Amino acid sequence: MNLLLYLNTSLSILKMHYKGAIFLILMSLNHTKDSLPVSYASEFNMEFSKKGIPKIKTSSKIKKYLSPLTSRSFDFPIQNKTIETISTGVITQILNQKNKKGIAIKHVYLENGKADTIYSVYKQIEINPSWKVGDTLPKNYLLSKNLGNFTMQENFELRKRKIGNLQIFLSNKEKGEYTQSKDLIDMKSFIPKHKNLTCPHKENKLLIAIKSEYKIYFIQKGKITKILEIALGQSPKGHKVKQGDNKTPEGEYRLSQKAKGPFSGTVGPYFGERWIRLSYPNAYDAEIGYKRKLISKAEKEQIENAIKNNQMPPKNTQLGGGIGIHGWSGEWDPNQNRDLTWGCISINNSDLIPLYDQLEVGDKIIISP
Length: 369
Prior knowledge:
Blueprint: H1 3-14, H2 18-34, H3 38-48, H4 60-65, E1 78-79, E2 82-84, E3 89-96, E4 101-111, E5 114-123, E6 136-137, E7 142-144, H5 152-155, E8 156-160, H6 172-180, H7 187-193, E9 205-210, E10 215-220, E11 223-229, E12 232-233, E13 251-260, E14 274-278, H8 283-291, H9 297-308, E15 324-326, E16 339-341, E17 345-346, H10 349-358, E18 364-368
């Protein structure tokens, strides 16, 4: 819709009944936004959403990924002889009785690109009268200056979601049952492995591909700046497990290589004008492959070491490799079949080229079901 037509429409609207006018103005704005590039429309949307202009539709999935409550790291509760929160979280229980005092906090974090939940429970600490269930506490929030008789072994628990909302003081029988079933988490194992986590809300740059939507989101400083259509592997549902299954993997990866076309070989033309390799398989893929006896222990360790050192993992095991983001031979139609690749993510060249220029080796990508 050009500017002259827009102004004429607006003048005509002013002469109409106010209810009809409001309806037509909203329709007019929707049409204008839809004619813009998606990335610009997204920025336009965020800037003016407070004024009542309809927002671009984004899924609940991407909104959850961008929650500021997602934990970025975990630490031990005892710091400098004080008791502090292990990570950002929301208070779910407060107990303030004469002989039983405690607080339970819910934490949400990403494990290989998937949201998970644990609960931290602090027993026999002084309860601040200002605390309320539903309050958000940041990481390293001071729970108590008085360490007293507080010990991690006796007065602190990490619980899985299954038992997170049970009473703060578990019976001896319950505690024994849950320890055996691993619903009580070994903090000495969990915390060191979760010192540094991906928190989309805090990342400078991040890609999030949601397979069920056939969309990829470019996140910059916690805000969506581009939403692009994508094509997937020829078997789009489920996580990639082995070479030749034509599935697009699911998890968290890094961009490990960039290259510009044209590309040679029989499949070269299908890469289009740009190629970005992902760090598939990662350590989680290696663990699954090892348990399924697809790779040896030595291959598993080779993959794990490559990921740990930010190197490209091997692509010649039975797990497959050479997974990345690329263009296409020509342009595929977003209204037609988009299960096209051998496991990669394809973005039409016209969208991929400007995105490619904004990405760097080392940037992260989350691929969600």
